[in-house]
């Protein structure tokens, strides 16, 4: 199914972060395969692994996107709209039993409204306290040319850069659910009934 994302010039009366949110919600319920396009040389976590994202949950103020890496279902990106409209990105890491990892809920909030197709998230104080070495991380999410979703990070002041890209032109079968999905509370907005099987 093709997707067309709104651009700023066509929606100048709507804040760019609201347009970005609307653009992402078009993807809800869909899953896509991706690849690593930039990573530190020593990376072994993502190298040669199958990568999938699934826009599994969308509400007015929250979007959850599990990232599956091989058979590892520990990661979920959680986007939240704050009261002032700015978007926050947090990384929810879980163990197989659903309990939170020791290193979880790091990320940050956009400093401004950003662009309709890109949001940038500098590390917040919670992240700096949890992981001092990544206090100067900047994450981003970007929609490129209606057919690519990009997630990445840059560690400012260093050569550390990481980027994943997912092909939005080819919808794939959704992966197994992320670890801990059953602890999310209200399941009404999940785009898959995991009690009846997987697709």
The portion of residues forming beta strands comes to 35-45%
Q: Give the proportion of residues in helices.
A: under 10%
Principal-axis shape equals: globular
Main beta sheet, described? 11 strands, antiparallel
User: Would you tell me the structural class of the helices and strands?
Assistant: mainly beta
Mean pLDDT across all amino acids: 89
Helix-strand pattern, N to C? HEEEEEEEEHEEE
Quickly count the helices. Answer: 2
Distance between the termini: 17 Å
| Uncertain stretches | 191-199
Cα Rg: 16 Å
Number of strands: 11
Question: How would you sum up this structure, described in words?
Answer:
By secondary structure, the chain is mainly β. It is 8% helix and 38% strand. Strands 1, 2, 3, 4, 5, 6, 7, 8, 9, 10 and 11 form an 11-stranded antiparallel β-sheet that branches. A hairpin with a 3-residue loop joins strand 3 and strand 4. The longest helix is centred in the first third of the chain and has 10 residues, at 16-25. It is globular and about 45 Å long. The model is unreliable at 191-199 (pLDDT under 50).
């Amino acid at each position: 199914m093709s997707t067309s994302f709104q651009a700023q010039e066509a929606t100048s009366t709507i804040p760019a972060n609201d347009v970005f949110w609307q653009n992402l919600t078009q993807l809800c319920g869909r899953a896509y395969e991706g690849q690593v396009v930039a990573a530190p040389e020593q990376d072994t976590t993502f190298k040669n692994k199958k990568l999938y994202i699934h826009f599994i949950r969308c509400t007015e103020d929250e979007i959850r996107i599990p990232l599956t890496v091989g058979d590892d279902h520990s990661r979920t990106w959680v986007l939240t709209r704050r009261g002032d409209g700015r978007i926050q990105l947090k990384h929810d890491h879980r163990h197989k039993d659903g309990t939170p990892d020791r290193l979880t809920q790091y990320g940050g909030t956009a400093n401004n409204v950003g662009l309709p197709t890109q949001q940038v998230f500098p590390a917040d104080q919670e992240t700096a306290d949890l992981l001092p070495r990544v206090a100067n991380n900047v994450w981003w999410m970007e929609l490129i040319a209606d057919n690519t979703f990009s997630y990445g990070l840059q560690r400012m002041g260093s050569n550390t850069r990481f980027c994943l890209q997912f092909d939005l032109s080819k919808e794939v079968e959704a992966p197994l659910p992320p670890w801990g999905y059953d602890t999310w509370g209200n399941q009404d907005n999940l785009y898959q009934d995991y009690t009846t099987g997987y697709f």
